[in-house]
Amino acid sequence: MRKAIRKTLDRLPLEFRVLYRQSLLRVVDLEALSIEADIPSFLGQFAGILILITLFRAIFTLWLPPPPTFAWHTEQSAISNMMLVIGLISVLTWDNTFPDRRDAMVLGPLPVRPRTILMAKIAATGALLGLAIVCLNIASSVAWSLVFAAPGGPIAFLRFLTAYWFTIVAASTFLYCSVLTLQGLTAYLLPRRLFLRLSALFQLAAFGLFLSAYFLAPFIESTAGLAAARNHPFLAASPVVWFFALFNQCNGTLPGDALWLARRAWIGLGCSVFGAIVSLLVCYLHTMRKTVEEPDLVPARRGFHFTPRMGGSLQSAVLLFIVRSLRRSRQHRVILAFFFAIVAACALALVHQAPRIGSTSQISPDFAIMTILMMGFAVLGFRAVFPLPISLTANWVLRITQVRPPEDYITAVRRSLFLLAVIPTWFTVVFLSLPYRPLFEMGEHLAVLLLFGFILVDLALIGFHKIPFTCSYFPGKSNFQFLFWGALAGVMLMTIFAMSVEFPALHHPGQCALLLVVLAAAAAGWRAFNRQRARSAVLYFEELPPQVITTLGLTQPQPPLAEPKQGPAAV
């Protein structure tokens, strides 16, 4: 099988194969990578995470089969999860399918047709999306088919499985083609400079829309919910419900009064695919010239520029460098927006649970858990984007201007992380805690939260001996599977801490005082540990793998040479 696939691929044109491989590897910005980066291993780790998720879902379904009434919720949840993953991929690979200045300048002089570039990028995008679809559904689809359709016999099992895969692929295609249509229309109608400015806003807006739809959209649990007139506005605007109806239509279980939802899915799928095809053709035949004729960089605006000073000159320089780098980089803003979307979701949940205006309430365990999770994700978000570089060609400026000890730079980075992540989150929690009483319990919780932020900052910067955004990225160095499951374990530990340690201590002043002393001692200990390591640290700007010498073991050890005999014969 592998040989047949290999022979088929070898028959494709050489230009297509080379461009396909490069387009697939450009999921991560090549200018930000270390020279020894292993991108296939980097992508394989994400595929492994998706496979583990689908395995856990399959084992849970087979071990504890849900009741039949829960089937609708499971099917809608699967479609919603898949659309969220495809939406995040489309946001992270926002500009990969369309031509950029590098494509026009490098491939333009070569005898490569634009349609070859287009087909190579579409094939690379399809491979990436297909990898995500298969890895996230390969085990759970079989498990759900066994549980929900196996009692009807083999034919029902095969029909359920076929309808499920068709619906998942159709929903993913609809969402991704819709994003391509939006990008193509804006690239064609707007000037290049304005398109680049609005593209970043559209990217963040699409990211927020996908997360908001995933967390806020309700599910339909029964046939009565589909038929209820009060639900029709929501049903008409929910693509998840459209493709859920399409799945039931393919499976033969859709009620007659819900056929209009399946028709919406068919119409939306056709319109999105047609719009994506037209947008890609127009961009590669017309808009590709704009990338060369118009510059990507927008000149700075004239006017009054105020540069605040925050601490010393080095502290101000590092902090302003971080803020302005995040303002210029769309990729970093999207990654940071992912974590802060979780923070915002927690804050919105607390606002929804808050007492009404004019009334007060006691602090609840949910409030303690949510606020601690907000602090954790805020610190983790900035720590996740700090290692990713933006412009490695400008690193020489930072190298030749390092006139102070590395300890001063590391301290400036720590204070910047505290000012950008801990302080805004802490003040947000202060605002959310206004309706709660008694005030001394809220004061205790805010003190615990602030010390917890100090500890998280020092834990996040252990071994981080570099300036943010200035070191090349080496994807193969970090095991993202370990980081992903480690993050989930950290969320569980923070939840356990809030439930079993902090919340009981808030009602006993003595226990709370002891907790504050322990947290203060832990914060001071981690700070002293990092300061001691920073004194002997060296700032580095290039990630390199460890130098390991590997031997093939082809030679046999030779016996030692015998010493020559002494005497007349030896002479």
What report would you give on this structure?
With 571 residues, the protein is mainly α. The protein has helices at 2-10, 14-25, 39-63, 71-92, 101-107, 114-148, 154-189, 192-216, 223-227, 232-236, 239-251, 259-285, 290-293, 313-328, 330-353, 365-385, 395-400, 406-432, 439-460, 480-506, 509-535. The protein has 21 helices and no strands. It is 69% helix and 0% strand. It folds into two domains: 2-218 and 231-293, no CATH class; 321-535, no CATH class. The radius of gyration is 28 Å and the shape is globular. Mean pLDDT is 78; it is low at 30-36 and 566-571.
Task: Tell me the layout of helices and strands.
Elements: H1 2-10, H2 14-25, H3 39-63, H4 71-92, H5 101-107, H6 114-148, H7 154-189, H8 192-216, H9 223-227, H10 232-236, H11 239-251, H12 259-285, H13 290-293, H14 313-328, H15 330-353, H16 365-385, H17 395-400, H18 406-432, H19 439-460, H20 480-506, H21 509-535
Structural features:
21 helices, mainly alpha, 2 domains, 571 residues
